[in-house]
Amino acid sequence: MRLRPVGRLGVLAELPDLSTVHRLVAAVRASGLPVVDVVPGYRTVLVTTASAADLAVVRHVLPELDLPAASAVSARQVEIPVVYDGEDLPSVAALTGLSEEEVVRRHTAPDYVVAFLGFAPGFPYLVGLDPSLHVPRRSSPRTSVPAGSVGLAGPQTGVYPQATPGGWQLIGRTPVALFDVTRDPPALLAAGDRLRFVAA
Fold first, then answer.
1. CB proximity list for 152: less than 8 A, separation 6 or greater
2. I need a surface site. Which of 88, 96, 183, 194 has the fewest CB within 10 A?
3. CA separation for the pair 130, 157 (Å, rounded)
4. In angstroms, rounded to a whole number, what is the distance separating the alpha carbons of residues 184 and 170?
5. How confident is the model at residue 113 (pLDDT cuts 50, 70, 90)?
6. What is the pTM of this model?
């Protein structure tokens, strides 16, 4: 683990892989350390604090934390229904050399892991996409992608929680609200959750 300072009250832990990221997040949240927030990335965890004294404690303790085994990190199983009628489904089929039906079959086959949330509140970056569905982002992003749109970009798949600009290839849509400010917590998903898409 390598620690880097971030601003006056934060520290960034650089880690070898996503599994270790999720294990460290679980350990920090269970530790009682004086933290304001814990933000996972693909190979980093940002920990922020409220004071310089708290930051000193976190920097001292962080490298010594016992990380739980990957199998012990609790993860929810979530199913997301998808209507596979996305505007880019025909072009994804053409890019991959698969039929539209096969694109849907391969997209619904894996159990995905929520790597982290980013880009927009509640937007899940999901890992576990079948390599045959790795397609480039659109050459020209859309100025507005409807909320609930399911897309592909490179080795990732994800769901747009609200209407935003975006350049992912859209293959379907879900009625499930991934982010709702009236809900506690507002984001439906969290890093480490397992997700499965189900054709509706």
1. 92, 107, 129, 133, 134, 135, 168, 169, 171
2. 183
3. 10
4. 29
5. very high
6. 0.86
